[in-house]
Write a structure and sequence with these properties.
about 400 residues; alpha/beta; 5-stranded parallel sheet; 12 helices; 26 strands; globular
């Protein structure tokens, strides 16, 4: 099919999250004239998820403020919505997607944006009411109603979502305990300096930590959770428990269709699977990271947007976007954490700024190349670090460590 013909092709998008909703918008922005069908298993229009663990829990956001586009945008742009639609099967030979309702939707191009789901904690009591996860607006709404003054939240897993939820619980006047099996929080996703800083900061705001702690199960009364049982037999009381122990890519639809998967759907730099008519974007993909010469699965809004652009560009025969430096952020209390890059094979760290003053950055270098930067309340370090990672040019470590040298000069 030529690029001109593709402009009138039917594009079916499975998954109406940030990635899927953005793909529909980029297709129209880039001039696509054909039919677009957007299938989502939730009853809501595509919405932003990062505020769910922060503004939503604190009552500072509602469904309208989270929507990526207003409701009339979809009708005005001829995007056919199938909300509460569950895609059950792809027939690659016939180029159709079959929904649980039995409806078969034909496509010329298919974009899989099925995201990831919360990893389950397979322990007794995990099915009690009040044992929650946090991936969707419905999850966030359940957690929101369980928080409040003097309510006790137990967070299983000291990752970013868990820490953000703990901060929100404290802001609402409740109690929060974070239970982590490793010796520090953020063990899988941050360096030790950052971990210890966040642990100390949360402690000063009243969050209690149980580290090196295994969870044996949940206890309850009348079907509702009342406590968390540790592996050593101790039990701590709680009114609600949030399980945040990672995510699993929703790649079963692709796998059942015979597409290659490896902790996510394997795609190329155009977000295209091994089937030239099928793309995959966002949290569900195992994608190339050309700056690091490897494949990896990322969970972030910037990643969803980049791959949505890749897929829309490839379908319409446009040049794809330049490879981006992966980046992430987290807001907790008055802290703005910004991370650029990934510390693959980094062999040394440089701390710049004042950790005690909550204004610093940790740079991760491999030789004299910057691999990643973790910046707390330090936007210049984040921005310049992101540029340095993208350039792949040697960095003067002495200048980088010296806060009297501006980041502009370091990056020059």
């Amino acid at each position: 099919m030529s690029a001109e013909a593709n402009q009138n092709a039917c594009v079916v998008i499975v998954g109406a999250g940030h990635a899927g909703g953005s793909a529909a918008a980029f297709l129209r922005q880039y001039g696509h004239q054909g039919r677009i069908v957007l299938i989502g298993d939730e009853p809501l229009l595509p919405y932003q998820r990062p505020p769910l663990s922060k503004a939503w829990l604190k009552g500072e956001a509602d469904a309208d403020s989270l929507s990526l586009k207003p409701a009339d945008w979809y009708a005005d742009n001829n995007v056919s919505l199938r909300l509460e639609g569950v895609a059950e099967r792809i027939n690659r030979a016939e180029k159709t997607v079959t929904l649980a309702s039995g409806e078969a939707i034909a496509y010329d191009f298919l974009i899989l944006a099925t995201g990831a789901r919360a990893r389950a904690l397979p322990v007794p009591g995990a099915d009690l009411a009040g044992v929650l996860s946090l991936r969707t607006a419905a999850d966030a709404e359940r957690l929101k109603h369980a928080l409040g003054p003097d309510k006790r939240l137990a967070v299983i897993g000291g990752g970013y979502v868990g820490l953000e939820a703990a901060a929100s619980a404290r802001a609402l006047g409740g109690h929060a305990m974070v239970i982590e099996r490793e010796s520090r929080v953020l063990a899988r996703v941050a360096c030790e300096t950052l971990s210890l800083f966040f642990q100390d900061y949360h402690g000063k705001h009243g969050v209690v930590f149980e580290l090196n702690a295994g969870v044996a199960g949940f206890e309850g009364e009348n079907g509702h959770v009342t406590g968390v049982k540790f592996s050593d037999g101790r039990v701590v009381s709680c009114d609600v428990a949030l399980v945040g122990v990672g995510a699993v890519p929703n790649d079963e639809l692709a796998k059942d269709a015979g597409l290659a998967t490896a902790n996510g759907v394997v795609v190329d730099l155009e977000a295209r699977t091994e089937d030239p008519s099928i793309f995959a974007i966002g949290d569900v993909t195992h994608r190339p990271l050309p700056l690091y010469e490897r494949q990896f699965r990322l969970e972030s809004v910037p990643n969803a947007l980049e791959q949505a652009k890749q897929a829309a560009s490839a379908i319409l025969g446009r040049p794809g976007p330049a490879p981006e430096v992966p980046w992430f952020w987290s807001d907790q209390y008055d802290l703005k954490l910004q991370i650029a890059g990934l510390p693959f094979e980094a062999d040394r760290q440089i701390v710049r700024g004042d950790v005690a003053a909550a204004k610093f950055a940790v740079f991760h270098l491999k030789g004299d190349l910057l691999q990643a930067v973790e910046a707390v309340n330090a936007p210049p370090e984040f921005m310049a670090g992101k540029q340095l990672i993208a350039k792949r040019t040697p960095v003067d470590a002495d200048k980088l460590a010296d806060p009297s040298v501006s980041m502009k000069e370091v990056a020059a």
